Amino acid sequence: MLYSDIRSSFPLLDSTVHGHPLIYLDNAATTQKPQVVIDALCRYYSSQNSNIHRGAHHLAAVATEMFEEVRGKVQRLINAKSSDEVVFTRGTTESINLVASSFGRQNIRPGDEVIVSGMEHHSNIVPWQLAGASLRPIPFSDEGVLDMQTFERLFSPRTRMVAVAHVSNTLGTVNPVADMARVAHAHGVPILVDGAQAVSHLSVDVQALDCDFYCFSGHKMYAPMGVGVMYGKRERLEELPPYQGGGEMISDVSFEKTTFNSLPFKFEAGTPSVADVLGLGAAIDFMMQVGIDNIAQHEEMLLQLAIEKMSQVSGMRFIGTAKGKVSVVSFLLGSAHPYDVGTLLDQMGIAVRTGHHCTQPVMQRYGIPGTVRASFAIYNTADEVDALCHALQRISSML
Ligand SMILES: Cc1ncc(COP(=O)(O)O)c(C=O)c1O
After folding, report:
1. Residues 7 and 106 both lie in one domain
2. 89 Cα to the center of ligand 1, angstroms
3. Minimal CA–CA distance to 387: which of 306, 319, 311, 330?
4. Ligand 1 proximity of 226 Cβ (cutoff 6 Å)
5. Is 121's C-beta closer than 6 angstroms to any atom of ligand 1?
6. Residue 170 shares a structural domain with residue 315
7. Do the domain assignments include residue 178?
8. Exposed / middle / buried, residue 248 (Cβ in 10 Å: 0-12, 13-18, 19+)
9. Is 170 in the pocket of ligand 1 (CB under 6 A)?
10. Which of 167, 169, 229 to mutate to test the pocket of ligand 1 (most atoms within 8 A of CB)?
11. Among all residues, which ones are annotated catalytic?
12. Per-residue pLDDT tens for 223-258?
């Protein structure tokens, strides 16, 4: 696929904001959607809409087949052993809540511990607290690298789970989750990986990582909002009790006793967001067509360019400078409040995110209120990085 074709696949990128061409650098929050994904949504509602599973009629059969095809696409994307290990959810948040709630009900008692990293998104902290666990955070260096020696020392007889981000949404750090899985398993503890920021940037192989659970959101990988994935190893999912009760997740129901459906349906109560799942399928096709390695290479070029040029802006302070990181650049500019920098960038048509990025413990670690975060995707260009750096120079001289 030609680069110009990739860029022009995203209609929203042609917009103007405050009289400037939009430069969209808020991709870690959500990516824009290619036309093929938008078309999949329109096609479904204009010619395929039907509830799935068990329908005797043609449309139900078509919708079911397309829906289940996407499960196979997700399986291949993350190299799961079986499509039965792929559970559709609303997103990473729901995926983690599902595991924390089901696993917690079975395994977490007051005083039991879950090891998390110090750089987790709130959605990989709060569900474990709701499940009743005490959290043991892994510290990280000023650069944003996890302290693996301390990690090994955090295990105790009460450790029930390791829950860690594959990629930090604030620092961009790629954590060594395969090594962490080895350590966790040596202690007889399962590991859940929050892949929300990884799947759109890296090739993910859940068998190679040997993680027990892997969670991600469609909307951060060019797919619609409202759909995500909870991957779990078959033996883990077989053991877990259902998360929600309702239609589809049952085998037989009576007032005396209910038995549950087989995997993955045991965890998919109620009508799923079929159109969004089909959109996810279209997004996976798009990413495969572009090539994950090509995406990673392009984003690495943008990241290096951004670091080089932004370093020349006076007052620039990067937050998160690990060697292994994806195209997420968090920073502060002199003593300016991140929100002010973000607002001034917006006036120039540049969309970035400001604040704590749902990682308040990271902000506490650095003693800062928040950061400005620019995050790049496959459709961003070197010219856009240049424009960001020029804008930051101007803001720096104004403030
Ligand atoms: C690392 C990480 N985990 C979890 C989430 C939550 O994702 P969602 O809001 O799509 O459920 C995010 C969203 O920003 C994230 O960056």
Report:
1. no
2. 13
3. 306
4. no
5. yes
6. no
7. yes
8. middle
9. no
10. 169
11. 358
12. 999 999 999 999 999 999 999 999 999 999 999 999
Q: pLDDT tens for residues 132-185?
A: 999 999 999 999 999 999 999 999 999 999 999 999 999 999 999 999 999 999
Among protein residues, the one with the nearest Cα to ligand 1's atom 15 is 196
Contact of 181 with 210, CB cutoff 8 Å? yes
Domain count for the chain, please give it. 2
Using most ligand atoms within 8 A of CB, pick from 27, 90, 92, 221 the residue to mutate for ligand 1.
92
77/179 same-domain check: yes
Q: Is the CB of 92 under 6 A from ligand 1?
A: yes
By residue range, what is the domain housing residue 48?
39-288
- The enclosing domain of 381 has a CATH number of 3.90.1150.10
Report angle CA 215, 98, 274 to the nearest 5 degrees.
70
**Contact 284/77 with Cβ under 8 angstroms?**
yes
Q: What is the 219 CA–ligand 1 centroid distance (Å)? A: 10
| pLDDT score for 194 | 99
Residues 220 and 108 in one domain: yes
Final residue before a domain boundary, out of 288, 320, 340: 288
8-state DSSP, 12: G
Would 147 be classed as within a structural domain? Answer: yes
Nearest-angstrom CA–CA distance, 167 and 42: 32
- The CB of 165 under 6 Å from ligand 1? The reply is yes
pTM of the predicted protein model: 0.98
Atom of ligand 1 nearest to the CA of 165: 1
Rg (CA), the chain: 22
CATH of the domain at 92: 3.40.640.10
Length, in residues, of the chain: 399
* Cβ 197 under 6 angstroms from ligand 1: yes
Does 186 lie in the same domain as 308? no
User: In this structure, are 284 and 299 located in the same domain?
Assistant: no
Instruction: Decide if 34 is inside a domain.
Output: no
User: Residue 108 falls within a domain, yes or no?
Assistant: yes
